[in-house]
Amino acid sequence: MPSSLLCKKQGFTLIEVILALAVFVAMTLIFAATIPMAMKASKMNGQYSQAVSLCQHKIDQLRAIGYGRVNSYDELSDAEIIDLSPTSSPYSFTTVDEVRNYLPESTASLRVQVLGTDRLKIIATVTWKTTTYEPKPSSASLSAVITNVE
């Protein structure tokens, strides 16, 4: 037998190349399918983080003006902490803080509860619609206690 028939040629066969391409395409499709979910999750996390930041900002504003001014509508509206309406708790701060610029279809409320002669409980809540196709809105809420330290 001639020696040229006994030696094997170097390289990949057509079947090996097709199989490698099929594995590559499958892995690419699996990775590409996760991108929309990751983007949606990132958007939702950003919105939630923004809502928590707005609530924390509102509580910080109330702590800054002090216990004596927190339980009065006139004091809160004069300090531009709440909207002009409603005039009783729960107050709104949607317009004052331009919440709709940060979150779609959003509302923001501030509830002041008296916990005794020297303590107030503040609950700041922001509600927004995450997407146009989900009927249930998302919300974030923070609470704090402000005491009279006089």
The span between the termini is 109 Å
Helix content: 40-55%
Counted up, domains total: 1
By DSSP, the count of extended strands is 4
Class based on secondary structure composition and strand pairing: alpha+beta
* Silhouette: rod-shaped
**What are the low-pLDDT stretches, counting only 5+ consecutive residues below 50?**
none
* Main sheet summary: 4 strands, antiparallel
Provide the β-strand percentage band: 15-25%
Annotation field: number of helices: 4
Topology:
Elements: H1 3-6, H2 14-65, H3 67-70, H4 73-78, E1 91-92, E2 107-114, E3 119-128, E4 138-147
Antiparallel strand pairs: 1-2, 2-3, 3-4
Keywords:
150 residues; 20% strand; 4 helices; 44% helix; single chain
Molecular structure report:
The chain is of the alpha+beta class and 150 residues long. The chain has one domain (14-147). It is built from four helices and four strands. The chain has helices at residues 3-6, 14-65, 67-70, 73-78; strands spanning 91-92, 107-114, 119-128, 138-147. A hairpin with a 4-residue loop joins strand 2 (107-114) and strand 3 (119-128). The longest helix has 52 residues, at 14-65. The chain is rod-shaped. The mean pLDDT is 87.
Summarize this structure briefly.
Helices cover 44% and strands 20% of the residues.
